[in-house]
Design goal:
single chain; alpha+beta; five-stranded antiparallel β-sheet; rod-shaped
Length: about 475
């Protein structure tokens, strides 16, 4: 079975990608030098061959002119041809009848070519030609008298061969040296990355996020080190926030759990003794059961808020274009169902925003719940929604005692509860969730003193264009949810 055509290239690509960067750089450097040496050899060989050929041709022309001058003076048939010395140039005289004369002892030259015969007949003045025989003669034919003279030279490739051998040895040395240099350069250039890798491995093994990687090197290496240090700083902050959340959650859960455990143990102990009815009158038992119910509800609320807060995101729901007035009305209705005694006065104008409905309703509900804890029974929680510039402004105020100036900077902190709020139910997470929801929607949450003397919590969210012309509620219209 034949293999797919593209399998081998893909296999080679996978093999190459599995090599280390140091090995890649070494191979690339050696390959680049090998290619450079090969190209240089080809160019130099061609130039050397041309130079040797030009030198040989010039020498043949010079010797031919001397021989032609001598032959014209003495005659082609009578000119003296010295015996062949055993090496060097080869000569031949072509007579008018086409016969030839050669020195004694000289090796036989190839037969006179048709073109050389035309030179002897006067068709042209000279001719330079190469013979393709095993000897590889370079023959120059020059018209002389009624015939011609020829001077030949045996083509010698030994200089080219010696040059090629030398270039091969030099090339091998250059490739080996290039590989060593490439390896050294790769090791030196990648040393910061090696130290960076070792530091990252050390952090992974020791879980020590406080050890920053030394800022060394330059350019890309420095940017990489700084990016990793920024990532470590973000991880440190995340772990610190996680630890604080766990510590604060444990602290906040401790009080209701202790109270709940003591009350349950009391009921169990009295029930085992059979003195539950006598020790706890109906009124006290009802009060205790109500207390247990309130503590369970507080634990449920705290667990839900901790879960929401620990997720690290506002919600998994998608962002959509919605009328914030509908969200506010729905949140007010939920607040009334959770705390029947709360009274909410709405003054809302239809305002469109881009956001997550459930998250925004949770934030508004937390604001109303917080205000309901402080507002006197005969004073409603006032909720206003209006446009202000390019923002939708939501204000929730109460007629309570207000927030002390010292507590204002920490109102939106996790688990923070003012001293005056210790006796009230709550986890200290409600306003923190409000802050996170508002930040996720690109808004801003602030706190100030209400005109009625209580707290004024304000949320500014970016307004959006409505999807179509809509009927707005009349500004200033109050709706009481009782």
């Amino acid at each position: 079975m034949s293999r797919p055509a593209g399998r081998e290239p893909r296999r080679l690509t996978r093999w190459w990608r599995r090599r280390s960067l140091r090995t890649r750089l070494t191979v690339i450097a050696a390959t680049a030098i090998a290619v450079s040496v090969f190209v240089a050899f080809q160019v130099a060989s061609e130039l050397l061959d041309r130079e040797l050929r030009d030198t040989a041709e010039n020498q043949l022309r010079a010797d031919s002119r001397v021989l032609a001058t001598t032959a014209e003076r003495a005659g082609l048939a009578r000119v003296q041809l010295p015996p062949y010395p055993g090496s060097g140039r080869l000569v031949r005289v072509i007579l008018p009848d086409g016969s030839t004369r050669t020195p004694a002892g000289q090796p036989a030259l190839p037969p006179v070519s048709e073109h050389a015969g035309r030179v002897a007949q006067g068709a042209s003045a000279d001719l330079m030609e190469s013979n393709d025989s095993e000897e590889g003669y370079l023959i120059y034919t020059l018209r002389a008298g009624d015939g011609a003279v020829q001077v030949a030279h045996v083509a010698d490739d030994s200089p080219i061969n010696r040059f090629g051998l030398g270039m091969l040895l030099i090339g091998l040395l250059c490739v080996v040296g290039g590989a060593l240099v490439g390896r050294t350069v790769a090791r030196t250039g990648l040393a910061p990355i090696d130290r960076l890798t070792a530091a990252a491995v050390r952090v992974a093994h020791t879980r020590d996020l406080d050890a920053d990687i030394p800022d060394e090197g330059g350019g890309e290496i420095r940017r990489l080190i700084r990016s990793i240090n920024d990532m470590l700083a973000a991880l440190r902050d995340s772990r610190r926030a996680q630890r604080l959340l766990a510590e604060d959650a444990a602290h906040e859960l401790k009080t209701p759990l202790t109270s709940l455990r003591l009350n349950v143990e009391l009921l169990i102990r009295l029930d085992r003794r059979g003195t539950l009815d006598s020790a706890l009158p109906a009124e006290s038992r009802t009060r205790l059961l109500n207390d247990l119910g309130a503590q369970v509800a507080e634990l449920s609320t705290l667990a839900a808020e901790l879960t929401d807060l620990a997720r690290g995101d506002v919600s998994d729901e998608n962002t959509e274009l919605l009328d914030l007035a509908d969200v506010v009305v729905a949140a007010a209705a939920r607040a009334r169902s959770r705390v029947p005694d709360i009274e909410v006065a709405l003054d809302v104008t239809s305002m469109w925003v881009s956001g997550r409905p459930a998250a925004l309703q949770r934030a508004v509900l937390n604001l109303i719940d917080n205000a309901g804890k402080w507002s006197p029974a005969d004073q409603p929680v006032q909720v206003r929604l209006r446009a202000e510039g390019a923002s939708a402004v939501l204000e929730v105020d109460d007629a309570g005692p207000g927030i002390d100036a010292a507590d204002v900077p920490r109102v939106f902190d996790r688990f923070y509860r003012a001293d005056s709020a210790r006796a009230l139910p709550g986890s200290g997470l409600g306003l923190s969730i409000v802050q996170r929801v508002v930040d996720a929607h690109g808004g801003r949450a602030t706190v100030a003193r209400s005109a009625r003397g209580g707290a004024l919590l304000r949320v500014d969210l970016p307004a959006a264009a409505p999807p179509a012309p809509i009927a707005r509620l009349t500004a200033g219209e109050d709706t009481a949810v009782r």
